[in-house]
Amino acid sequence: MLSSSFENLGVCKEICETLAELGWKSATEIQAKAIPVALRGRDIVGLAETGSGKTAAFAIPILQTLIMKPRYNYALILTPTRELALQIKKHFMDLGEKFGLRVLCLVGGQYVEDQFRSLRTVKHHIIIGTPGRISYHLENSKELILGKIRYLVLDEADQMLGGNFDTQLELILSKLPEKRKTFMYSATMTSSLDKIQTACLRMPVRLETSSKYTTVDKLDHAFIFLPEQKRDAYVAKLLADLEENVSPSACPCTPYFFWDSSF
User: Fold this and answer.
1) Residues 64-120: pLDDT tens digits?
2) Number of structural domains found in the chain
3) Fewer CB in 10 Å around end: N or C, the chain?
4) Checking DSSP bridges between strand 44-47 and strand 103-106, what pairing results, if any?
5) Which residues contact 9 (CB under 8 A, 6 or more apart)?
6) Taking the CA atoms of the chain, what radius of gyration do you get in angstroms?
7) pTM (2 decimals)?
Protein backbone atom coordinates (compact mmCIF):
# COMPACT_ATOMS: atom_id res chain seq x y z
CA MET A 1 0.00 0.00 0.00
CA LEU A 2 1.31 3.46 -0.91
CA SER A 3 1.99 5.74 2.02
CA SER A 4 -0.57 8.47 2.69
CA SER A 5 0.13 11.88 4.12
CA PHE A 6 -2.01 12.84 7.09
CA GLU A 7 -2.99 16.06 5.32
CA ASN A 8 -4.47 14.08 2.44
CA LEU A 9 -6.52 12.06 4.93
CA GLY A 10 -8.28 15.20 6.13
CA VAL A 11 -6.23 15.81 9.26
CA CYS A 12 -6.20 19.50 10.18
CA LYS A 13 -3.10 21.66 9.86
CA GLU A 14 -2.59 21.99 13.62
CA ILE A 15 -2.48 18.24 14.21
CA CYS A 16 -0.37 17.67 11.08
CA GLU A 17 2.20 20.04 12.55
CA THR A 18 2.20 18.07 15.80
CA LEU A 19 2.60 14.80 13.90
CA ALA A 20 5.55 16.26 12.01
CA GLU A 21 7.15 17.31 15.30
CA LEU A 22 6.72 13.72 16.52
CA GLY A 23 8.40 12.42 13.37
CA TRP A 24 5.29 10.81 11.91
CA LYS A 25 5.79 11.31 8.19
CA SER A 26 3.01 9.14 6.77
CA ALA A 27 0.03 7.11 7.93
CA THR A 28 0.06 3.37 8.47
CA GLU A 29 -2.44 1.20 6.64
CA ILE A 30 -5.04 1.18 9.41
CA GLN A 31 -4.63 4.93 9.92
CA ALA A 32 -5.08 5.63 6.21
CA LYS A 33 -8.26 3.56 6.17
CA ALA A 34 -9.78 4.62 9.49
CA ILE A 35 -9.10 8.34 9.83
CA PRO A 36 -11.20 9.54 6.84
CA VAL A 37 -14.06 7.23 7.84
CA ALA A 38 -13.98 8.46 11.43
CA LEU A 39 -13.91 12.10 10.32
CA ARG A 40 -17.06 11.43 8.29
CA GLY A 41 -18.78 10.43 11.52
CA ARG A 42 -19.12 6.69 10.94
CA ASP A 43 -18.82 3.89 13.48
CA ILE A 44 -15.85 1.60 12.84
CA VAL A 45 -14.90 -2.03 13.35
CA GLY A 46 -11.16 -2.18 12.77
CA LEU A 47 -9.28 -5.45 12.50
CA ALA A 48 -5.61 -4.69 12.95
CA GLU A 49 -2.73 -6.32 14.73
CA THR A 50 -0.87 -4.85 17.69
CA GLY A 51 1.77 -2.41 16.49
CA SER A 52 -0.19 -1.37 13.40
CA GLY A 53 -0.76 2.18 14.62
CA LYS A 54 -4.41 1.73 15.55
CA THR A 55 -4.18 3.98 18.61
CA ALA A 56 -3.50 7.00 16.41
CA ALA A 57 -6.19 5.76 14.02
CA PHE A 58 -8.82 6.60 16.62
CA ALA A 59 -6.96 9.25 18.65
CA ILE A 60 -6.38 11.64 15.74
CA PRO A 61 -10.03 11.99 14.63
CA ILE A 62 -11.24 12.23 18.23
CA LEU A 63 -8.73 14.99 18.96
CA GLN A 64 -9.54 16.84 15.74
CA THR A 65 -13.27 17.00 16.44
CA LEU A 66 -12.54 17.92 20.06
CA ILE A 67 -10.32 20.92 19.32
CA MET A 68 -12.93 22.23 16.88
CA LYS A 69 -15.50 22.26 19.69
CA PRO A 70 -13.87 21.68 23.10
CA ARG A 71 -15.94 19.94 25.76
CA TYR A 72 -15.26 17.76 28.78
CA ASN A 73 -16.09 14.05 29.15
CA TYR A 74 -15.78 13.83 25.38
CA ALA A 75 -14.45 10.31 24.83
CA LEU A 76 -14.24 7.05 26.77
CA ILE A 77 -11.52 4.56 25.83
CA LEU A 78 -11.84 1.03 27.25
CA THR A 79 -8.90 -1.38 27.28
CA PRO A 80 -8.40 -4.83 28.81
CA THR A 81 -5.19 -3.98 30.70
CA ARG A 82 -3.65 -1.24 32.81
CA GLU A 83 -0.51 -1.20 30.68
CA LEU A 84 -2.42 -0.58 27.45
CA ALA A 85 -4.48 2.17 29.09
CA LEU A 86 -1.32 4.00 30.19
CA GLN A 87 0.17 3.60 26.73
CA ILE A 88 -2.93 5.08 25.10
CA LYS A 89 -2.86 7.98 27.55
CA LYS A 90 0.70 8.75 26.47
CA HIS A 91 -0.35 8.74 22.81
CA PHE A 92 -3.17 11.17 23.49
CA MET A 93 -0.90 13.47 25.50
CA ASP A 94 1.79 13.39 22.81
CA LEU A 95 -0.80 14.50 20.28
CA GLY A 96 -2.88 16.87 22.36
CA GLU A 97 -0.84 18.35 25.18
CA LYS A 98 -0.15 21.59 23.34
CA PHE A 99 -3.90 22.02 22.80
CA GLY A 100 -4.53 21.81 26.54
CA LEU A 101 -5.84 18.25 26.43
CA ARG A 102 -6.66 16.69 29.80
CA VAL A 103 -6.65 12.90 30.02
CA LEU A 104 -7.65 10.78 33.01
CA CYS A 105 -6.58 7.16 33.36
CA LEU A 106 -8.72 4.95 35.63
CA VAL A 107 -7.00 1.62 36.16
CA GLY A 108 -5.99 -0.74 38.93
CA GLY A 109 -2.70 -0.35 40.75
CA GLN A 110 -3.59 3.22 41.71
CA TYR A 111 -5.20 4.61 44.84
CA VAL A 112 -8.96 4.78 44.37
CA GLU A 113 -9.11 7.83 46.65
CA ASP A 114 -6.76 9.73 44.32
CA GLN A 115 -8.98 8.84 41.38
CA PHE A 116 -12.09 10.01 43.26
CA ARG A 117 -10.33 13.29 44.02
CA SER A 118 -9.27 13.78 40.42
CA LEU A 119 -12.79 13.11 39.17
CA ARG A 120 -14.21 15.55 41.68
CA THR A 121 -11.78 18.44 41.25
CA VAL A 122 -10.52 18.32 37.64
CA LYS A 123 -12.45 18.24 34.38
CA HIS A 124 -11.08 15.91 31.71
CA HIS A 125 -11.64 15.62 27.98
CA ILE A 126 -10.62 11.97 27.58
CA ILE A 127 -11.23 9.14 30.04
CA ILE A 128 -9.23 5.93 29.58
CA GLY A 129 -9.60 2.84 31.72
CA THR A 130 -10.22 -0.83 32.21
CA PRO A 131 -13.82 -2.08 32.44
CA GLY A 132 -13.24 -3.20 36.03
CA ARG A 133 -12.10 0.16 37.36
CA ILE A 134 -14.59 2.17 35.28
CA SER A 135 -17.50 0.04 36.51
CA TYR A 136 -16.19 0.33 40.09
CA HIS A 137 -16.43 4.12 39.92
CA LEU A 138 -19.89 3.95 38.37
CA GLU A 139 -21.09 1.74 41.22
CA ASN A 140 -19.33 3.48 44.11
CA SER A 141 -19.33 7.19 43.35
CA LYS A 142 -21.29 9.91 41.61
CA GLU A 143 -18.21 11.58 40.20
CA LEU A 144 -17.87 9.64 36.93
CA ILE A 145 -20.54 10.93 34.54
CA LEU A 146 -20.74 9.29 31.11
CA GLY A 147 -23.98 10.82 29.89
CA LYS A 148 -22.26 13.32 27.57
CA ILE A 149 -19.67 11.00 26.04
CA ARG A 150 -19.47 11.53 22.27
CA TYR A 151 -16.96 8.80 21.42
CA LEU A 152 -16.59 5.26 22.76
CA VAL A 153 -13.53 3.20 21.84
CA LEU A 154 -13.18 -0.51 22.61
CA ASP A 155 -9.50 -1.27 22.05
CA GLU A 156 -8.33 -4.90 21.94
CA ALA A 157 -12.03 -5.72 22.16
CA ASP A 158 -11.43 -9.44 21.69
CA GLN A 159 -9.66 -9.45 25.07
CA MET A 160 -12.60 -7.84 26.89
CA LEU A 161 -15.18 -10.57 26.45
CA GLY A 162 -16.15 -13.30 28.88
CA GLY A 163 -16.09 -13.57 32.66
CA ASN A 164 -16.55 -10.35 34.64
CA PHE A 165 -15.92 -8.24 31.56
CA ASP A 166 -19.40 -9.01 30.22
CA THR A 167 -21.26 -7.59 33.23
CA GLN A 168 -18.86 -4.66 33.50
CA LEU A 169 -19.31 -3.72 29.84
CA GLU A 170 -23.07 -4.06 30.17
CA LEU A 171 -23.06 -1.58 33.06
CA ILE A 172 -20.81 0.89 31.24
CA LEU A 173 -22.83 0.76 28.03
CA SER A 174 -26.02 1.41 29.98
CA LYS A 175 -24.57 4.73 31.21
CA LEU A 176 -23.59 6.01 27.77
CA PRO A 177 -25.81 8.11 25.50
CA GLU A 178 -27.27 6.38 22.47
CA LYS A 179 -26.18 9.25 20.28
CA ARG A 180 -22.44 8.66 20.08
CA LYS A 181 -19.76 7.34 17.76
CA THR A 182 -18.21 3.96 18.54
CA PHE A 183 -14.90 2.54 17.36
CA MET A 184 -14.11 -1.11 18.06
CA TYR A 185 -10.60 -2.39 17.36
CA SER A 186 -9.41 -5.97 17.60
CA ALA A 187 -6.73 -8.25 16.24
CA THR A 188 -9.29 -11.03 15.77
CA MET A 189 -12.96 -11.37 14.88
CA THR A 190 -15.01 -13.84 16.91
CA SER A 191 -18.70 -14.65 17.25
CA SER A 192 -18.71 -12.81 20.59
CA LEU A 193 -17.39 -9.69 18.90
CA ASP A 194 -20.14 -9.96 16.32
CA LYS A 195 -22.66 -9.85 19.16
CA ILE A 196 -21.18 -6.79 20.86
CA GLN A 197 -20.85 -5.10 17.48
CA THR A 198 -24.58 -5.56 16.94
CA ALA A 199 -25.32 -4.29 20.44
CA CYS A 200 -23.33 -1.05 20.50
CA LEU A 201 -22.42 0.01 16.95
CA ARG A 202 -24.64 1.57 14.28
CA MET A 203 -24.03 0.53 10.69
CA PRO A 204 -20.26 0.33 11.23
CA VAL A 205 -17.69 0.41 8.48
CA ARG A 206 -15.49 -2.68 8.71
CA LEU A 207 -11.81 -2.06 8.02
CA GLU A 208 -9.27 -4.86 7.67
CA THR A 209 -5.51 -4.82 7.44
CA SER A 210 -4.76 -8.52 7.80
CA SER A 211 -6.31 -11.79 6.69
CA LYS A 212 -5.36 -13.64 9.88
CA TYR A 213 -8.15 -13.25 12.42
CA THR A 214 -8.08 -16.55 14.26
CA THR A 215 -7.17 -16.86 17.91
CA VAL A 216 -4.67 -19.41 19.15
CA ASP A 217 -6.40 -22.68 20.08
CA LYS A 218 -3.83 -23.67 22.68
CA LEU A 219 -1.49 -21.44 24.65
CA ASP A 220 1.26 -23.11 26.67
CA HIS A 221 2.75 -21.41 29.74
CA ALA A 222 6.31 -22.19 30.81
CA PHE A 223 7.35 -21.51 34.42
CA ILE A 224 11.04 -21.35 35.27
CA PHE A 225 12.37 -20.82 38.82
CA LEU A 226 15.68 -18.97 38.92
CA PRO A 227 18.20 -18.07 41.64
CA GLU A 228 17.99 -14.30 42.03
CA GLN A 229 21.72 -13.64 41.87
CA LYS A 230 21.98 -15.40 38.49
CA ARG A 231 18.66 -14.20 37.09
CA ASP A 232 19.97 -11.95 34.32
CA ALA A 233 22.34 -14.57 32.98
CA TYR A 234 19.61 -17.24 32.92
CA VAL A 235 17.13 -14.95 31.19
CA ALA A 236 19.64 -13.81 28.57
CA LYS A 237 20.61 -17.41 27.78
CA LEU A 238 16.99 -18.57 27.55
CA LEU A 239 15.94 -15.71 25.28
CA ALA A 240 18.94 -16.31 23.03
CA ASP A 241 18.02 -20.00 22.74
CA LEU A 242 14.40 -19.16 21.96
CA GLU A 243 15.37 -16.66 19.28
CA GLU A 244 17.76 -19.13 17.65
CA ASN A 245 15.73 -22.33 17.81
CA VAL A 246 12.02 -21.50 18.02
CA SER A 247 9.72 -19.86 15.53
CA PRO A 248 7.21 -17.64 17.39
CA SER A 249 4.43 -18.69 15.01
CA ALA A 250 5.16 -22.34 15.68
CA CYS A 251 5.22 -22.08 19.45
CA PRO A 252 2.49 -19.96 21.08
CA CYS A 253 4.21 -20.03 24.44
CA THR A 254 4.31 -17.34 27.12
CA PRO A 255 7.31 -17.72 29.49
CA TYR A 256 7.10 -16.57 33.12
CA PHE A 257 10.20 -16.04 35.25
CA PHE A 258 10.29 -16.42 39.04
CA TRP A 259 13.25 -15.85 41.31
CA ASP A 260 13.79 -16.61 44.94
CA SER A 261 16.45 -14.97 47.09
CA SER A 262 16.61 -18.11 49.23
CA PHE A 263 18.26 -20.13 46.43
Assistant:
1) 999 999 999 999 999 999 999 999 999 999 999 999 999 999 999 899 999 999 999
2) 2
3) N
4) unpaired
5) 27, 31, 32, 35, 36, 39
6) 20
7) 0.78
